[in-house]
Amino acid sequence: MAKSGTTRDSVAEDEQVSMSYSKEKQVSRSPNQLPAWIVAWFYATAVICTWDASFIVCRPYSMPGQSLAWIWYLYKYYVTVDQRYSDIGDAYVYAQSLLNYAEVLLNVIALIMHYRQSKHTVPTAFMVSVMTMWKTVLYFLMFSDLCTGSEYRRGNTLVQEIFILVIPNIFWISLPSAAMIQLWSYITPVEKSTSYGSWENGEALSNDCFSESRSQQRGLKREVLRGPGSGFVQSGKATEDISEINSLSWTYCMRQRTGQAKSAKGKN
């Protein structure tokens, strides 16, 4: 009876360990979802880019003193520094605003993919981040004296350009660049085999226990599958023996991981 009770306790413990590890994998392994801060950034980008592009498209009614000026109240300060916004005949800023709508559409698609855990989420989010960063770099270049920016900076002071144009717009370079750096680790392939490993932040982590266990399994499989010097695969009981080997190796590793976690909690 004591042996039977011990066996039941051991089975129950093994099931609990397996369930806890499955939950851990579900929580930590999310290669098709975006980090929370990138999701929040995409929401903000969709709103702000739509607002900004609509100002350009709705000119002259959106200009200061016109019927729709109350929607873009703060632009009465911005258009005095970034004078492209006040030039209705400037084709460049109009074309970029139309492309802003395309960028917003891709932002929304990436968010939908995120919630559906699509495998295309991360590549789409990376592509949109590149678009956001690069269009801002191009706009700064067009605003500089290297291109046609000199005619749109007349009468500006350095302080005005730094606080009204450079500082607000620099976020559209720094934040997309940070998103690109983090998403790049999700896209790049994993070099090592990690069939029994876990995932964290989209990156596969190797596990020494599983690596050692798999090495032992290979040796045992050779003994089970091959006869003495025959080199032929046997059938029947061999399949059951292999399943038992896999189960024991998995249980051993799970117990080892649980023990390490408990000792770490005890130290804390």
From TrEMBL:
The keyword Oxidoreductase does not apply. The keyword Ribonucleoprotein does not apply. Keywords: Membrane, Transmembrane, Transmembrane helix. It comes from the Eukaryota. The chain crosses the membrane at residues 34-57, 91-112, 124-142, 162-184. Coiled coil: none annotated. PANTHER family: EXPERA DOMAIN-CONTAINING PROTEIN, PROTEIN CBG05606. This is Emopamil-binding protein. It comes from Elysia marginata.
